Amino acid sequence: MTPQARPGGAVVTFEHVTKRYGPPGVPPAVDDLSLAIPAGEICVLVGPSGCGKTTTMRMINRLAEPTAGRITIDGQDVRDLSAVELRRGIGYVIQQVGLFPHLTVGENVAIVPRLLRWPEPRIRERVEELLELVGLEPGAYRARYPASLSGGERQRVGVARALAADPPVMLMDEPFGAVDPILRDRLQNELLRLQAKVGKTIVFVTHDVDEAIKMADRVAILRRGGVLAQFDTPEAILSAPASEFVEHFVGADRGLKRLSLAKVRDLQLIQPLIVRVGEPRVEVRRRMEVDGTGYALLVDAADRPLGWVDSAELAADGTLTEEEATPGAPPLQPETTLRDALSTLLGSSVQLGVVTDERDRVLGLLSVDAISEVLRPDATAPRS
C-alpha cells in the first residue's frame, strides 16, 4: 500500500534506485533500493560504514544523482525540478551545522526565504517564529554571530534555518554526532518535541542503532553496498529481525533495547515534596514530618530543581539557601528514553530522577523500580 500524504510532510519514495560511482563493473554504493517513507514520519537510515546511507539521503536533494531508478516526493520525480529549485524546498541539517560565520543568527535563518523573494515583513516574522520554536529567545539571539554560540545553540539555529521555508521534507546527516552525550540526548528530545508540532517528513542518517531506535518511526537498515536489509518500525526490527545480519547489527541486548521504545512520559511520575529557596527551615521540617519521606526537592523561584534536602541536615533555624541542596542525577525530560533514564539513574547516588519540561521546571520524579517494571517478561513497552 502506498503511504498517503498528510499536512506538514510529503511521501518520499525510492523505486529501484541504484547509485554507482565507477564503471558498471564496480560494486554500487546503493543497489536497487525500493522503499516508501510515509508523510510526517522520521525515517532513520542506519548501517555500517560504506553501506550507502548518506548517499541514499543525498540523492533525495540531488547532491548525488541516481544512476538508475526513480525518487519521488509526493509523486513528483525529483529530476523534474532543477537542482536549485529542489534544494530550496528541502531542509538540510548536517553534523557541523554549516552556518555562515559572517551572517547573524537572524540572517542565517532568513537565507532561503530571501532567495525565494519573500517580503521582508514576512521574513522577519518567520525568523522570530522559528527562533522561538527551537528554544532561542529572538531578542537575545537574532543579532548574534555563530562564533558566539555554543554547539547546541548552533545546532538549533541550523534546524531553524532548515525549517525556514516550511519544507515538507528535511534531511539530517548525523546532526548530533559532534556533541557530547548529555547535550546529544537533549537535542534529540528537542527534535522529537519539534516534530510533534511541525510533522515534517525527516530522513535522518546515523551510525548509532540506539539513536535510530529512539528517533525513528521507521528504520531502514542497510548492508554494505547499499542493500536494504530491513525497513520497518523499531518495534518490529527488535522483535523480529529479518536476517542474521540485522540481528547482529541491532545487538544481543535486544531485550534491553526495548527500553528505548518507551519514553519517560509513558510512565506515571511520582510527585515530590517541593520546597523553595527562602522558605523557613522550621516550616520545611514540619512539612517533611507530615510527608514522612525525610527528604524534599529544593527548587528556585522558577520551579527549576537545585537538588535534595535531607531533614537530618535542617537542625538550624533560618531559611533555606541554594548551598544546602545535594545534587542528584542530571534532570530527565519526557522525551528521554527509559534506557537512557535508567543509565542516568544507576550512575547517581540518588535512584530517583527529576523530570523537567522544556523550561527546566519540575514535572515529577521517576524511580529505578518503575523502569524495571517495563523489563518484566509480561510488560509491554509503550510506543509514542
Overview of the structural elements:
- With 384 residues, the chain is an alpha/beta fold.
- Mean pLDDT is 88; it is low at 1-6.
- It folds into 2 domains: 12-253, P-loop containing nucleotide triphosphate hydrolases (Rossmann fold, 3-Layer(aba) Sandwich), CATH 3.40.50.300; 265-374, CBS-domain (Roll), CATH 3.10.580.10.
- Strands 6-7-8-3-9-10 form a 6-stranded mixed beta sheet, with helices on both faces. A 4-stranded antiparallel beta sheet has the order 2-1-4-5, with helices on one face.
- The protein is 32% helix and 21% strand.
- The chain has 15 helices and 15 strands.
What's the SSE blueprint?
Blueprint: E1 12-19, E2 30-37, E3 42-46, H1 53-60, E4 68-73, E5 76-77, H2 83-88, E6 90-94, H3 105-109, H4 111-115, H5 120-133, H6 138-141, H7 151-163, E7 169-173, H8 181-198, E8 201-205, H9 209-215, E9 218-223, E10 227-232, H10 234-239, H11 244-250, H12 254-257, E11 274-276, H13 281-291, E12 295-299, E13 305-310, H14 338-346, E14 352-356, E15 362-367, H15 368-374
Parallel strand pairs: 3-8, 3-9, 6-7, 7-8, 11-12
Antiparallel strand pairs: 1-2, 1-4, 4-5, 9-10, 12-13, 14-15
Task: State the main characteristics.
single chain; 384 residues; alpha/beta; Rossmann fold; CBS-domain; 2 domains; 6-stranded mixed β-sheet; 4-stranded antiparallel β-sheet; 32% helix; 21% strand
Shape: globular
Secondary-structure element sequence?
Answer: EEEHEEHEHHHHHEHEHEEHHHEHEEHEEH
Distance between the termini: 23 Å
Low-confidence stretches: 1-6
Mean pLDDT figure: 88
Give a summary of the structure in a few sentences.
The protein contains 15 helices and 15 strands. The longest helix is centred in the middle third of the chain and has 18 residues, at 181-198. Helix content is 32%, strand content 21%.
